[in-house]
Specification:
Blueprint lengths: L13 E5 L28 H11 L6 E5 L9 H9 L6 E6 L4 H11 L3 E5 L5 H8 L7 H10 L5 E7 L8 H10 L3 E6 L17 H12 L2 E3 L11 E5 L5 E5 L12 E4 L4 E3 L7 E3 L1 H5 L5 H10 L6 H4 L7 H4 L2
Parallel strand pairs: 1-2, 1-10, 2-3, 3-4, 4-5, 5-6, 6-9
Antiparallel strand pairs: 7-8, 8-9, 10-11, 11-12
The protein binds S-adenosylmethionine (SAM) and iron/sulfur cluster.
């Protein structure tokens, strides 16, 4: 059986699965404060259905899975899904993207079920700011969450920081400093102006070159190509001399990386989305629930995967927030 190769010759081995559209945070760049309607429960794929998608994609070349959301850890019994995916022989790597709130309680259970690694969203090291950005006071402490993940044996541990001018850009150096003591990979993400929130405008975007310049001004020249051994994505990594961890930048706004895209996304309601930005979705839930094989639908999606994302050309409006499409 031939693998999944799109019309531009890119091999797809990586599936990001949104297990829920719901979240216990309301990050200013991701969700409106109020009024985001949740999908009805009956529209959401069950864990059995998600595992079925993974089993059907595995012979087509699927090797890596990331669970995301919304906030994946608020869906009950996430470890049950992880164990089901772990049982698929072809899957070499299972990762989780989380806001980290529940990691101190759940990291051990998730690791035991078969989770390999975790990305934690951490936009500030100051508790007042965390509450201002997430607009929920849940006592989140990013360092505590990362330590819990480390204690559970999850590796590598990545911290994702969405940098917003005038909100948290003065903490770039503090986040970079964490990598000296801890073997963590701190990734600075350029804010993407998708959706309707007031923070999503150009003046809040901090280009990655500026982020790296601030870090170099504090710590001197960075060692290049110093990232974690396991990674699937678009981050470029460097290291402060002598540091245990690394620093990465993810640059959707200033440098495109679509040419090496290796991923597709499964939305919580069972649509295969071939690009984070854009409207290219194929419904897998209907054939799945009708007991039909998914391969023809997946191949159709591959044939339609766009060459590059529409973020820079479409900008504000018209695009779904990342909480809805799985980040
Ligand atoms: N709730 C989980 C979390 O926060 O990690 C997983 C889902 S979240 C949508 C996935 C990632 O998308 C997070 O790292 C978040 O910071 C990022 N994200 C959401 N909206 C964004 C935006 N407008 N610009 C840049 N990154 C964004
Ligand atoms: Fe929730 Fe993650 Fe979006 Fe924040 S970024 S609102 S934690 S889904």
């Amino acid at each position: 059986m031939s693998g999944l190769i799109d019309q531009f010759g890119r091999t797809i081995q990586y599936l990001r699965i949104s297990v829920t559209d719901r979240c216990n945070f309301r990050c200013r760049y991701c969700m409106p404060l109020e009024g985001l309607p949740w999908l009805p429960k009956s529209d959401i794929l069950s864990y059995e259905e998600i595992a079925d998608v993974v089993r059907q994609l595995a012979p087509l070349g699927l090797r890596r899975v990331r669970l995301t959301g919304g906030e994946p850890t608020i869906r009950p019994q996430l470890s049950r899904l992880i164990a089901m995916i772990r049982a698929v022989d072809e899957v070499e790597d299972i990762a989780l993207s989380t806001n980290g709130v529940k990691l101190p309680a759940l990291a051990g259970e998730l690791a035991t079920a078969g989770l390999d690694r975790v990305n934690i969203s951490a936009d500030s090291l100051r508790s007042d700011r965390i509450v201002a950005i997430a607009r929920r006071d849940l006592g989140f402490d990013p360092v505590r969450a990362a330590l819990a993940a480390q204690a559970a044996g999850l590796d590598p541990i990545k911290l994702n920081v969405v940098v917003m001018r005038g909100t948290n850009d003065d903490e770039v150096v503090d986040f970079a400093r964490l990598t000296i003591e801890h073997p963590w990979h701190v990734r600075f993400i350029e804010l993407m102006p998708v959706g309707e929130m007031e923070i999503l405008t150009d003046e809040h975007v901090v280009p990655s070159d500026e982020i790296l310049a601030r870090i170099r001004a504090e710590f001197g020249a960075l060692e290049p190509n110093a990232g974690p051994a396991r990674g699937n994505g678009p981050a470029a990594y460097a290291r402060i001399t002598g540091a245990r961890g690394s620093i990465g930048v993810i640059t959707p706004m200033t440098h495109t990386y679509c040419g090496s895209c290796n991923r597709v996304r499964l939305t919580a309601d069972g649509r295969l989305r071939t690009c984070l930005f854009g409207d290219h979705e194929v419904d897998l839930r209907t054939p799945l629930r009708a007991g039909m094989p998914l391969e023809p639908f997946v191949r159709q999606a591959m044939a339609e995967k766009p060459e590059a994302h529409a973020l820079l050309s479409r900008r504000n409006g018209g695009l779904r927030a990342l909480s809805q499409v799985g980040g």
